[in-house]
Amino acid sequence: MRFLTGTIVRLLSGGVLGAIAAGIITGDEVYAIVLAVGLPIVFTVGTIIVATRSTRKRKGFTRPGQVPGINATVVGQSVQEPAAPVLNPSAGVLLNGEPVATAATTPATASAGRPLGLRLLSLLTIAAGAALALIPAYGIIGWMAEDAAAGRPFDGRDMRYGLHQQEAFDAIVAVMGDTQVTSISFYDSYLAVTAPTTPGARTVDRFEWRSGRAARVGPDYSQPADIREELFDAGAMDMGVVARVVRQSLDDADLEGVEGIYPSIRRFAGEPPEISVTITNAYFTASYDYTLEGELIQRGGSAFD
User: Fold this and answer.
1) Partner of 199 for a Cys bridge, out of 103, 140, 176, 178, CB 3.0 to 4.6 A?
2) Is 302 helix (H, G, I), strand (E, B) or coil?
3) What pTM was computed for the model?
4) DSSP 3-state assignment of 269?
5) β-strand 190-196 against 204-210: which pairing, if any?
6) Strand 260-266 versus strand 213-219 pairing type
């Protein structure tokens, strides 16, 4: 029973450590909930185990039939006076009537720590708990390795000009069940898609890829008057084109102290869909429109006045 309880506590401890690491890697608030629930459980169970073991150790030093701390006369019985205490006892000497175990007589195992095998097993159990908690973050961890290999360890996961727009969009498509959309918006840490609630519906919902997971958020902020004028198929598009034109726009605008970068893909009034990129700083705005293949259509804004 002790082994099973200890194993569970070590798994939970590893899970808490894994949740901390995954929360840092993905920024997913779900891991904050896991920590809020897991930490009190680990602390409570660990405290109970430590208290139980301490109680057992104390009981192990009490002789059967003896009440600790009481040297008194029992009615009807005579109690022999305890022997005079002996200071600095040596091997084989009695202290208050009890044999004293010294360094020479104490078995080597008395002071030995836990066996190496058990310690390794404990570490492996903690590592297993951490690995289980990190499973939802494995995709992001893989992206981090790719970004490092590409020489972009810090901005490779930026959805505006990073390296993984296509993977994020594909994850959203898997949730939507279709590639028909009315708009796609790109942000630093997430991707947002507006698409029919169900394939063929007149209403639209908002879908997001965020922190390594794609999900339906709910009804979009505004509903189209005529969805047919805004709907387009994004299934054949290379989302990496967005990152390319954003970087191209940044170089062309050459604004100091850029405060905002807003790429999106939309279709207006039945026209072919376009990639729009708006760049702002404290004083100017630069706007660009591109075809889905990345060809510049026009540019404008106060940065060019």
Assistant:
1) 178
2) helix
3) 0.67
4) coil
5) antiparallel
6) unpaired
